[in-house]
Amino acid sequence: MTFLRSLASSKGDLSSITAPPFILSGTSLVEYSKFWAELPDLFVAPTMILDKEERALAVLKWFIATLKGQYTSRNETLGSEKKPLNPFLGEVFLGKWETETEGPTILVSEQVSHHPPVTAYAIYNDMYGIELQGYNGQKASFATTTLNVRQVGHAVLYIKKFDEYYYITLPTLHIEGLFYGAPYVELEQKTLIQSSNGYRATIEYSGKGYFSGKKNTFKAKFYEPEDSNPLYTISGQWSGKSTIMNEQTKNEPLFYDATEHKVVPLIVKPIDQQADYESRRAWEKVAAAVPIMDYDTIHIEKSKIENEQRELRKKEKELGIKWQRRYFELIEDEGPLKEVAELAGVEPDEKVWRFNREAFELSPDSKL
Ligand code: HCR
User: Fold this and answer.
1) Which of 147, 184, 187 has the alpha carbon at shortest distance from 63?
2) 10 Å Cβ neighbour count for 307?
3) 65 CA to middle of ligand 1, Å?
4) In the prediction, which pLDDT does 339 show?
5) Chain centroid to CA 79
6) Contact 215, 222 (CB under 8 A)
7) Which one, out of 57, 58, 236, 337, has a CA that is 20 to 30 A from the CA of 166?
8) Which pTM value belongs to this model?
9) What is the Å distance from ligand 1's center to 111 Cα?
Protein backbone atom coordinates (compact mmCIF):
# COMPACT_ATOMS: atom_id res chain seq x y z
CA MET A 1 0.00 0.00 0.00
CA THR A 2 2.89 2.38 0.80
CA PHE A 3 4.26 1.65 -2.66
CA LEU A 4 0.91 2.31 -4.35
CA ARG A 5 0.66 5.59 -2.42
CA SER A 6 4.19 6.57 -3.56
CA LEU A 7 3.13 5.84 -7.16
CA ALA A 8 0.04 7.99 -6.76
CA SER A 9 2.17 10.91 -5.56
CA SER A 10 4.94 10.49 -8.17
CA LYS A 11 3.47 13.31 -10.33
CA GLY A 12 4.67 11.98 -13.66
CA ASP A 13 8.28 11.52 -12.63
CA LEU A 14 9.09 7.80 -12.62
CA SER A 15 12.50 8.41 -11.05
CA SER A 16 10.85 9.64 -7.84
CA ILE A 17 9.11 6.31 -7.19
CA THR A 18 10.44 4.39 -4.19
CA ALA A 19 9.85 0.75 -5.02
CA PRO A 20 9.98 -2.07 -2.46
CA PRO A 21 13.15 -4.22 -2.76
CA PHE A 22 11.39 -7.13 -4.50
CA ILE A 23 10.37 -4.82 -7.37
CA LEU A 24 13.84 -3.29 -7.83
CA SER A 25 16.10 -4.23 -10.71
CA GLY A 26 19.88 -3.90 -10.66
CA THR A 27 19.86 -2.78 -14.30
CA SER A 28 19.92 0.86 -15.28
CA LEU A 29 17.36 2.23 -17.74
CA VAL A 30 20.23 3.34 -19.99
CA GLU A 31 20.70 -0.38 -20.87
CA TYR A 32 17.18 -0.69 -22.28
CA SER A 33 18.28 0.70 -25.65
CA LYS A 34 19.77 -2.74 -26.34
CA PHE A 35 16.30 -4.21 -26.92
CA TRP A 36 16.21 -2.56 -30.34
CA ALA A 37 18.80 -4.89 -31.87
CA GLU A 38 18.95 -8.15 -29.94
CA LEU A 39 17.94 -9.86 -33.17
CA PRO A 40 20.70 -8.56 -35.50
CA ASP A 41 19.53 -10.72 -38.43
CA LEU A 42 16.14 -8.97 -38.48
CA PHE A 43 17.78 -5.58 -37.87
CA VAL A 44 19.93 -5.82 -41.02
CA ALA A 45 17.43 -7.79 -43.17
CA PRO A 46 15.79 -4.72 -44.85
CA THR A 47 19.16 -3.67 -46.33
CA MET A 48 19.15 -6.76 -48.57
CA ILE A 49 15.69 -6.25 -50.06
CA LEU A 50 15.49 -4.33 -53.35
CA ASP A 51 11.71 -4.03 -53.51
CA LYS A 52 10.46 -0.99 -51.52
CA GLU A 53 7.27 -2.64 -50.36
CA GLU A 54 9.00 -5.82 -49.21
CA ARG A 55 11.67 -3.72 -47.51
CA ALA A 56 9.14 -1.66 -45.56
CA LEU A 57 7.47 -4.93 -44.50
CA ALA A 58 10.85 -6.22 -43.27
CA VAL A 59 11.24 -3.04 -41.19
CA LEU A 60 7.78 -3.65 -39.71
CA LYS A 61 8.72 -7.25 -38.90
CA TRP A 62 11.93 -6.16 -37.16
CA PHE A 63 9.98 -3.57 -35.14
CA ILE A 64 7.32 -6.10 -34.02
CA ALA A 65 10.15 -8.50 -33.12
CA THR A 66 11.79 -5.94 -30.79
CA LEU A 67 8.65 -5.61 -28.63
CA LYS A 68 9.02 -8.92 -26.76
CA GLY A 69 12.48 -8.00 -25.47
CA GLN A 70 11.55 -4.36 -24.75
CA TYR A 71 8.43 -5.10 -22.76
CA THR A 72 8.43 -8.69 -21.46
CA SER A 73 12.07 -9.63 -20.87
CA ARG A 74 12.03 -8.74 -17.14
CA ASN A 75 8.97 -10.97 -16.65
CA GLU A 76 10.80 -13.79 -18.32
CA THR A 77 14.17 -13.42 -16.59
CA LEU A 78 13.14 -11.96 -13.20
CA GLY A 79 9.55 -13.18 -12.77
CA SER A 80 7.85 -9.77 -13.08
CA GLU A 81 8.45 -6.23 -14.34
CA LYS A 82 10.96 -4.36 -12.17
CA LYS A 83 11.88 -0.77 -11.49
CA PRO A 84 15.14 -0.03 -13.33
CA LEU A 85 17.88 2.12 -11.78
CA ASN A 86 17.62 5.82 -12.66
CA PRO A 87 20.58 6.63 -14.89
CA PHE A 88 22.70 9.61 -13.89
CA LEU A 89 23.54 12.36 -16.37
CA GLY A 90 26.43 11.23 -18.56
CA GLU A 91 25.95 7.52 -17.79
CA VAL A 92 26.89 5.46 -20.80
CA PHE A 93 26.13 1.90 -21.84
CA LEU A 94 28.18 0.40 -24.67
CA GLY A 95 28.24 -2.98 -26.32
CA LYS A 96 28.21 -4.93 -29.54
CA TRP A 97 26.57 -7.95 -31.06
CA GLU A 98 28.91 -10.06 -33.17
CA THR A 99 27.58 -12.81 -35.39
CA GLU A 100 29.18 -14.67 -38.27
CA THR A 101 26.61 -13.49 -40.83
CA GLU A 102 25.87 -9.96 -39.61
CA GLY A 103 29.34 -9.01 -38.33
CA PRO A 104 29.50 -6.37 -35.58
CA THR A 105 26.47 -4.26 -34.62
CA ILE A 106 27.45 -1.45 -32.24
CA LEU A 107 25.36 0.05 -29.43
CA VAL A 108 26.01 3.46 -27.84
CA SER A 109 23.49 4.58 -25.23
CA GLU A 110 23.83 7.71 -23.09
CA GLN A 111 21.76 9.46 -20.45
CA VAL A 112 21.54 12.94 -21.94
CA SER A 113 19.15 14.46 -19.42
CA HIS A 114 18.38 13.70 -15.79
CA HIS A 115 15.40 16.02 -15.18
CA PRO A 116 13.38 15.07 -17.13
CA PRO A 117 15.14 11.73 -17.73
CA VAL A 118 16.06 11.17 -21.38
CA THR A 119 18.17 8.37 -22.88
CA ALA A 120 19.64 8.74 -26.37
CA TYR A 121 21.05 5.87 -28.41
CA ALA A 122 22.63 4.86 -31.69
CA ILE A 123 22.87 1.32 -33.05
CA TYR A 124 24.70 0.67 -36.30
CA ASN A 125 26.00 -2.08 -38.52
CA ASP A 126 28.49 -0.85 -41.14
CA MET A 127 28.73 -4.17 -42.98
CA TYR A 128 25.08 -3.75 -44.00
CA GLY A 129 24.88 0.06 -43.87
CA ILE A 130 22.05 0.44 -41.37
CA GLU A 131 21.71 2.75 -38.38
CA LEU A 132 19.06 3.34 -35.74
CA GLN A 133 19.06 6.53 -33.70
CA GLY A 134 16.59 7.65 -31.13
CA TYR A 135 15.85 9.00 -27.70
CA ASN A 136 13.16 8.50 -25.15
CA GLY A 137 11.79 9.73 -21.89
CA GLN A 138 8.67 8.75 -19.99
CA LYS A 139 5.72 10.68 -18.55
CA ALA A 140 3.73 8.76 -15.97
CA SER A 141 0.31 9.06 -14.37
CA PHE A 142 -1.38 6.82 -11.86
CA ALA A 143 -5.04 5.71 -11.97
CA THR A 144 -6.38 3.51 -9.13
CA THR A 145 -3.99 0.56 -9.40
CA THR A 146 -2.53 1.13 -12.86
CA LEU A 147 0.55 3.10 -13.78
CA ASN A 148 0.20 4.71 -17.23
CA VAL A 149 3.39 5.59 -19.06
CA ARG A 150 3.56 7.76 -22.17
CA GLN A 151 6.83 7.63 -24.06
CA VAL A 152 8.34 10.86 -25.32
CA GLY A 153 10.76 10.78 -28.27
CA HIS A 154 11.09 8.69 -31.41
CA ALA A 155 13.45 6.38 -33.28
CA VAL A 156 14.76 6.73 -36.81
CA LEU A 157 16.10 3.89 -38.91
CA TYR A 158 18.36 4.80 -41.83
CA ILE A 159 19.30 2.47 -44.69
CA LYS A 160 22.34 3.82 -46.47
CA LYS A 161 22.08 1.86 -49.75
CA PHE A 162 18.63 3.28 -50.50
CA ASP A 163 19.13 6.58 -48.64
CA GLU A 164 15.88 5.74 -46.90
CA TYR A 165 14.54 6.80 -43.48
CA TYR A 166 11.90 5.21 -41.27
CA TYR A 167 10.41 7.44 -38.58
CA ILE A 168 9.13 5.34 -35.67
CA THR A 169 6.90 6.59 -32.86
CA LEU A 170 6.94 4.85 -29.47
CA PRO A 171 4.03 3.02 -27.83
CA THR A 172 2.18 4.12 -24.73
CA LEU A 173 2.14 1.47 -22.02
CA HIS A 174 0.65 0.72 -18.66
CA ILE A 175 1.70 -1.45 -15.77
CA GLU A 176 -0.84 -3.99 -14.59
CA GLY A 177 -0.71 -6.39 -11.62
CA LEU A 178 0.63 -3.73 -9.21
CA PHE A 179 -1.94 -4.49 -6.53
CA TYR A 180 -0.80 -8.12 -6.45
CA GLY A 181 2.90 -7.19 -6.36
CA ALA A 182 3.41 -8.85 -9.76
CA PRO A 183 3.69 -5.96 -12.23
CA TYR A 184 3.79 -6.49 -15.99
CA VAL A 185 3.64 -4.23 -19.05
CA GLU A 186 0.79 -4.03 -21.53
CA LEU A 187 0.99 -1.81 -24.60
CA GLU A 188 -1.83 0.46 -25.71
CA GLN A 189 -2.79 3.01 -28.36
CA LYS A 190 -0.84 3.22 -31.63
CA THR A 191 2.59 3.51 -33.12
CA LEU A 192 3.49 4.59 -36.58
CA ILE A 193 6.32 3.68 -38.93
CA GLN A 194 6.61 6.14 -41.80
CA SER A 195 9.17 5.57 -44.53
CA SER A 196 10.64 8.31 -46.68
CA ASN A 197 9.67 6.04 -49.61
CA GLY A 198 5.99 6.67 -48.76
CA TYR A 199 5.08 3.26 -47.30
CA ARG A 200 3.68 3.39 -43.80
CA ALA A 201 2.32 1.15 -41.08
CA THR A 202 0.12 1.87 -38.09
CA ILE A 203 0.25 -0.59 -35.21
CA GLU A 204 -2.61 -0.64 -32.74
CA TYR A 205 -2.07 -2.42 -29.42
CA SER A 206 -4.41 -4.01 -26.99
CA GLY A 207 -4.38 -6.29 -23.97
CA LYS A 208 -6.67 -9.21 -23.31
CA GLY A 209 -10.23 -8.83 -24.53
CA TYR A 210 -10.27 -6.13 -27.21
CA PHE A 211 -8.94 -7.86 -30.35
CA SER A 212 -8.91 -11.36 -28.82
CA GLY A 213 -8.80 -13.19 -25.47
CA LYS A 214 -5.00 -13.06 -25.55
CA LYS A 215 -2.57 -10.62 -23.94
CA ASN A 216 -0.07 -8.49 -25.94
CA THR A 217 -2.21 -8.33 -29.06
CA PHE A 218 -1.78 -5.95 -31.97
CA LYS A 219 -3.26 -5.14 -35.35
CA ALA A 220 -1.00 -3.44 -37.89
CA LYS A 221 -2.18 -1.91 -41.13
CA PHE A 222 0.35 -1.52 -43.90
CA TYR A 223 -0.25 1.09 -46.60
CA GLU A 224 1.35 1.98 -49.91
CA PRO A 225 2.15 5.66 -50.55
CA GLU A 226 -0.86 7.99 -50.58
CA ASP A 227 -3.44 5.24 -50.18
CA SER A 228 -5.85 5.00 -47.28
CA ASN A 229 -6.80 1.38 -47.95
CA PRO A 230 -4.36 -1.04 -46.37
CA LEU A 231 -2.48 -3.53 -48.54
CA TYR A 232 -1.96 -5.92 -45.63
CA THR A 233 -3.27 -6.39 -42.11
CA ILE A 234 -0.89 -8.06 -39.70
CA SER A 235 -2.35 -9.28 -36.43
CA GLY A 236 -1.68 -11.53 -33.50
CA GLN A 237 0.47 -11.34 -30.38
CA TRP A 238 3.70 -9.32 -30.41
CA SER A 239 5.08 -11.71 -27.78
CA GLY A 240 3.86 -14.74 -29.77
CA LYS A 241 2.63 -15.48 -33.27
CA SER A 242 1.24 -13.07 -35.84
CA THR A 243 -0.12 -13.54 -39.34
CA ILE A 244 -0.20 -11.29 -42.42
CA MET A 245 -3.37 -11.00 -44.46
CA ASN A 246 -3.27 -9.79 -48.04
CA GLU A 247 -6.37 -7.57 -48.27
CA GLN A 248 -6.92 -8.62 -51.93
CA THR A 249 -6.45 -12.39 -51.76
CA LYS A 250 -7.39 -12.80 -48.07
CA ASN A 251 -4.48 -15.23 -47.82
CA GLU A 252 -3.14 -15.23 -44.25
CA PRO A 253 0.27 -16.88 -43.74
CA LEU A 254 2.50 -16.60 -40.65
CA PHE A 255 4.24 -13.20 -40.34
CA TYR A 256 6.41 -13.66 -37.26
CA ASP A 257 6.78 -16.08 -34.37
CA ALA A 258 8.42 -14.39 -31.38
CA THR A 259 8.70 -17.69 -29.50
CA GLU A 260 10.97 -19.16 -32.20
CA HIS A 261 13.52 -16.38 -32.46
CA LYS A 262 16.50 -16.48 -30.08
CA VAL A 263 18.11 -13.23 -28.97
CA VAL A 264 21.84 -12.75 -29.54
CA PRO A 265 23.60 -11.77 -26.28
CA LEU A 266 25.19 -8.34 -26.27
CA ILE A 267 28.94 -8.31 -25.64
CA VAL A 268 29.86 -5.77 -22.95
CA LYS A 269 33.44 -5.10 -21.78
CA PRO A 270 34.37 -6.67 -18.44
CA ILE A 271 33.62 -4.24 -15.60
CA ASP A 272 37.30 -3.72 -14.69
CA GLN A 273 37.95 -2.46 -18.24
CA GLN A 274 35.03 -0.01 -18.20
CA ALA A 275 35.24 3.72 -17.49
CA ASP A 276 33.71 5.08 -14.25
CA TYR A 277 30.77 6.55 -16.14
CA GLU A 278 29.86 3.22 -17.76
CA SER A 279 26.64 1.87 -16.40
CA ARG A 280 27.59 -1.58 -15.12
CA ARG A 281 30.74 -0.26 -13.47
CA ALA A 282 29.03 2.69 -11.83
CA TRP A 283 26.13 0.56 -10.48
CA GLU A 284 28.20 -2.57 -9.72
CA LYS A 285 27.66 -2.51 -5.94
CA VAL A 286 23.97 -1.69 -6.19
CA ALA A 287 23.44 -4.41 -8.81
CA ALA A 288 25.13 -6.98 -6.54
CA ALA A 289 22.97 -5.94 -3.56
CA VAL A 290 19.62 -6.10 -5.41
CA PRO A 291 19.20 -9.88 -5.85
CA ILE A 292 20.10 -10.52 -2.18
CA MET A 293 17.79 -7.65 -1.11
CA ASP A 294 20.53 -5.94 0.88
CA TYR A 295 18.54 -2.75 1.20
CA ASP A 296 21.16 -0.93 3.30
CA THR A 297 23.87 -1.38 0.66
CA ILE A 298 21.43 -0.42 -2.10
CA HIS A 299 20.57 2.77 -0.20
CA ILE A 300 24.20 3.66 0.70
CA GLU A 301 25.60 3.02 -2.78
CA LYS A 302 22.74 4.79 -4.57
CA SER A 303 23.13 7.80 -2.28
CA LYS A 304 26.87 7.96 -3.07
CA ILE A 305 26.11 8.28 -6.78
CA GLU A 306 23.29 10.78 -6.19
CA ASN A 307 25.49 12.94 -3.91
CA GLU A 308 28.36 12.93 -6.42
CA GLN A 309 25.91 14.07 -9.06
CA ARG A 310 24.56 16.84 -6.80
CA GLU A 311 28.13 18.04 -6.19
CA LEU A 312 28.87 18.05 -9.92
CA ARG A 313 25.76 20.10 -10.69
CA LYS A 314 26.67 22.53 -7.90
CA LYS A 315 30.18 23.00 -9.30
CA GLU A 316 28.83 23.52 -12.82
CA LYS A 317 26.46 26.18 -11.49
CA GLU A 318 29.27 27.95 -9.65
CA LEU A 319 31.47 27.91 -12.77
CA GLY A 320 28.58 28.85 -15.04
CA ILE A 321 29.14 25.85 -17.29
CA LYS A 322 26.85 23.14 -18.63
CA TRP A 323 27.37 19.39 -18.64
CA GLN A 324 28.94 18.36 -21.94
CA ARG A 325 27.15 15.30 -23.38
CA ARG A 326 29.65 12.70 -24.55
CA TYR A 327 28.28 11.32 -27.82
CA PHE A 328 24.99 13.07 -28.53
CA GLU A 329 24.02 16.66 -29.24
CA LEU A 330 20.72 18.50 -29.17
CA ILE A 331 20.18 20.01 -32.59
CA GLU A 332 17.48 21.74 -34.58
CA ASP A 333 16.31 19.19 -37.08
CA GLU A 334 16.02 20.72 -40.52
CA GLY A 335 17.08 17.65 -42.49
CA PRO A 336 15.24 14.78 -44.16
CA LEU A 337 13.91 13.53 -40.84
CA LYS A 338 11.75 16.59 -40.44
CA GLU A 339 10.25 15.80 -43.84
CA VAL A 340 9.51 12.18 -42.88
CA ALA A 341 7.91 13.34 -39.62
CA GLU A 342 5.74 15.73 -41.62
CA LEU A 343 4.87 12.95 -44.09
CA ALA A 344 3.81 10.92 -41.05
CA GLY A 345 1.61 13.76 -39.83
CA VAL A 346 3.65 13.88 -36.63
CA GLU A 347 4.55 17.25 -35.15
CA PRO A 348 8.37 17.14 -35.32
CA ASP A 349 10.25 17.96 -32.11
CA GLU A 350 11.85 21.39 -32.28
CA LYS A 351 15.16 19.99 -31.15
CA VAL A 352 16.29 16.39 -31.40
CA TRP A 353 19.13 14.37 -29.87
CA ARG A 354 21.49 13.13 -32.58
CA PHE A 355 24.53 10.87 -32.41
CA ASN A 356 27.96 12.44 -32.90
CA ARG A 357 29.69 9.43 -34.37
CA GLU A 358 32.97 11.25 -34.85
CA ALA A 359 33.18 12.08 -31.13
CA PHE A 360 32.50 8.44 -30.29
CA GLU A 361 35.04 7.07 -32.74
CA LEU A 362 37.75 9.41 -31.49
CA SER A 363 37.18 8.20 -27.92
CA PRO A 364 38.74 5.09 -26.32
CA ASP A 365 35.14 3.96 -25.63
CA SER A 366 34.85 2.94 -29.29
CA LYS A 367 37.28 0.04 -28.68
CA LEU A 368 34.64 -2.50 -27.82
C1 HCR B 1 8.08 2.18 -17.57
C2 HCR B 1 9.38 1.45 -17.24
C3 HCR B 1 10.56 2.36 -17.54
C4 HCR B 1 10.66 2.66 -19.03
C5 HCR B 1 10.78 1.39 -19.87
C6 HCR B 1 10.89 1.69 -21.39
C7 HCR B 1 9.74 2.57 -21.84
C8 HCR B 1 12.24 2.41 -21.66
C9 HCR B 1 12.61 2.50 -23.13
C10 HCR B 1 12.64 1.13 -23.77
O11 HCR B 1 12.97 1.23 -25.13
C12 HCR B 1 11.29 0.47 -23.60
C13 HCR B 1 10.88 0.43 -22.17
C14 HCR B 1 10.47 -0.72 -21.66
C15 HCR B 1 9.94 -0.90 -20.29
O16 HCR B 1 8.89 -1.78 -20.36
C17 HCR B 1 9.61 0.43 -19.58
C18 HCR B 1 9.58 0.19 -18.08
C19 HCR B 1 8.54 -0.76 -17.51
C20 HCR B 1 8.51 -0.44 -16.03
C21 HCR B 1 9.34 0.85 -15.83
C22 HCR B 1 8.80 1.69 -14.66
C23 HCR B 1 9.67 2.91 -14.37
C24 HCR B 1 8.80 0.84 -13.41
C25 HCR B 1 7.81 1.29 -12.40
C26 HCR B 1 7.83 0.41 -11.22
C27 HCR B 1 6.99 -0.79 -11.43
C28 HCR B 1 7.53 -2.07 -11.76
C29 HCR B 1 5.90 -0.79 -10.50
Assistant:
1) 187
2) 10
3) 18
4) 76
5) 20
6) no
7) 236
8) 0.95
9) 15
